[in-house]
Amino acid sequence: MESEGNVERPEQAPSTAASPTQRRTSRTLALLIGGLLATYVAVAYLVMPLWWSLYVHRHPGLDKVPGITTTKVGIPADPLNVAVVGTQHELIAALLKAKWYPADPLSLKSSIEIAADTVLRRPFDEAPVSSLYLFDRKEDLAFEKPVGHDPRQRNHVRFWKTDTPDPDGRPLWVGGATYDRGVGLSHTDGEITHHIAADVDTERDRLMSDLEASGDVAEMFQVDNFHKVKEGRNGGGDPWHTDGTLRGCVLKKRVE
Question: What is the rounded distance in angstroms from the CA atom of residue 210 to the CA atom of residue 189?
Fold first, then answer.
């Protein structure tokens, strides 16, 4: 008979209960994840919308700007989709650095005065844009970015200076950036004209990206639902469409 001291006892399974340290670690991790999620929700859905609304409020001139330009006879033309805060000097200098070149004599003269030591390399000598109208006047500045050596295709933008300056006292400019995909007859009056690509948002984004890359931009902003009507036809009868957003930037102040 075996003695009591030699009786074999069944092995106990290892305990699966978490230790106090593990429980504290789990609670800390859960609180951290919960805090990050709460911060994301607050920033994405509360702070940022409020920030954008406050930022847009900094530019009251945008509230008074029509969404569409017109031709000389009042036919709806290209939509507006960009805005820039800065002096004329700052705007022209930033466009030149972004490799957008003057497309009319006024812009060329101003650009030469501002950047007299800059050689403007262009694939063709004359590349004017037809005039469009806003605030009962044609564009104040017109610039283009060549596409290869084909004058039938180009990126271009027209700018109008608004009557309402930014709170820092500098002018607010609004513009319409579009891409000329080719030359043909206008669908409305039969005149020879450039036809634009329908997706005006791509050109809007190209211009803003080029300006940002120039190094002259202090900050970017955008106005959602600037356009309530998000598609139409311009003065040449070309269709256009947009997501409704106007994008803009504030240029760095330059020492005059």
Answer: 34
Amino acid at 26: S
β-bridge pairing 137-138 and 68-70: unpaired
SS3 category, 38: helix
Residue 153 is encoded by which pair of tokens? Answer: 């295709």
Asked if the model's pLDDT at residue 165 lies above 60, the reply is yes
- Per residue in 126-151, pLDDT tens? 455 678 999 999 999 999 888 866 66
Coil, helix or strand at residue 183 = strand
Do the beta carbons of residue 157 and residue 129 sit within 8 Å? no
| Residue 220 CB partners (closer than 8 Å, separation 6+) | 208, 212, 247, 248, 249, 250
pTM: 0.68
Q: Does residue 27 carry a pLDDT above 50?
A: yes
Tokens (6 digits) for 245: 């957003």
Q: Work out whether strand 246-251 and strand 217-223 pair parallel, antiparallel, or are unpaired.
A: antiparallel
Which two tokens mark 92? 């022209």
Contact partners, residue 152, CB within 8 Å, separation at least 6:
180, 182, 183, 194
Compute the radius of gyration of the chain from its Cα atoms.
Answer: 29
Note whether 249 and 211 are within 8 A (CB).
yes
Contact between 171 and 87 (Cβ < 8 Å): yes
pLDDT digits (tens, 9 = 90+) for 42-91: 655 555 544 444 444 456 678 778 899 998 888 888 999 999 999 999 99
